[in-house]
Structure prediction request, 331 residues.
Amino acid sequence: MAAALMRLAVAVTCALMLASASQGLEVGYYKKTCPRVEHIVRAEVKKFVYKNAGIGAGLIRLLFHDCFVQGCDGSVLLDPTPANPQPEKLSPPNFPSLRGFEVIDAAKDAVEKACPGTVSCADIVAFAARDAAYFLSRFYLKIDMPAGRLDGRVSNASEALDNLPPPFFNVTELVDTFAAKGLDTEDMVVLSGAHTVGRAHCSSFVPDRLAGPSDIDAGFASALRRRCPADPAPGNDPTVNQDLVTPNAFDNQYYKDVLAHKVLFTSDAALLTAPETAKMVRDNAYIPGWWEDKFKAAFVKMSRVEVKTGKQGEIRKNCRVVNHGHPHGHY
Ligand code: HEM
Ligand SMILES: *[C@@H]1O[C@H](CO)[C@@H](O)[C@H](O)[C@H]1NC(C)=O
Ligand SMILES: *[C@@H]1O[C@H](CO)[C@@H](O)[C@H](O)[C@H]1NC(C)=O
Prediction:
């Protein structure tokens, strides 16, 4: 009788533990299985970002583009194969602009040496994005990044097109795109602040911001016209910095640029077109520390979007290809 009760108690405890493990991610998830992982990833990110700050911007965007398509599951990392010739990374929102893949490869190699088969590519993307924000903010943004994401096996270019917001979206379309991922209006405004670093290709803003009427600052527009062809196309599509004032600093300058009408995209300018989002822009611009605190929380929230656990995913050996074989046998 006592033994039976004991077995029951153990079974219930195990079920509860499994349930809580599958419900969410944990800070320090690899503490027992790969204690140095976060240190290893940070060291790789540091090497690349100190050589080229733009790669840091790329890594921050990489997490966003991973998470909005099939959830944060490393699906954006998968290369084309004969069986899957059009993965996410080849879709227009990602190709040829998305960058930082070589950092993920280097981090994965280093992590595999220390703890083979233990750390997912999806978690490496999240750690690397967090670390890029840390270095570009000059160590100001310290984010505890939870982990435990699994890698997905599906990557489809048309899903990237359907789920990632294009730069010509207006404020309602932006709110809806983020709401579809469980992110609210404030998350959307706060995460848009990532456009305080990095670059954009002329093709991302010339057609709707320079060709016709727009609210863009006249002096800023003429500077952009000097850099960009009137009709940018592959092979003739230069890039410009997103933030002219502090181009490589991960700070709240973006919101001052929005207020000054010195931002590149319709989606950036759109934040002033609704009273609710305009108020958030002003708070982020004017209240010291406001944006930084909000950004930390929203970034972690984004990193939890549609995360895969249990049989939905795997720990990829190489971040660019799904593992061979079908681990769960029902494919
Ligand atoms: C709100 C909707 C958003 C739209 C419409 C949008 C659109 C874009 C576009 C068109 C580019 C330029 C790509 C190019 O031409 O090279 C870009 C760059 C960038 N985006 Fe966004 N984005 C949005 C939200 C975000 C979010 C949520 C993040 C991250 C938290 C982010 C981070 C970045 C970064 C860091 C860059 C610069 C990348 C680099 O230099 O390689 N964006 N975005
Ligand atoms: C990708 O998604 C589209 C639209 O959902 C679908 O029609 C297409 O068959 C998918 N491609 C692959 C290779 O699964
Ligand atoms: C945004 O665009 C959609 C689709 O074109 C349109 O229905 C909506 O009224 C627009 N909203 C605003 C605030 O302009």
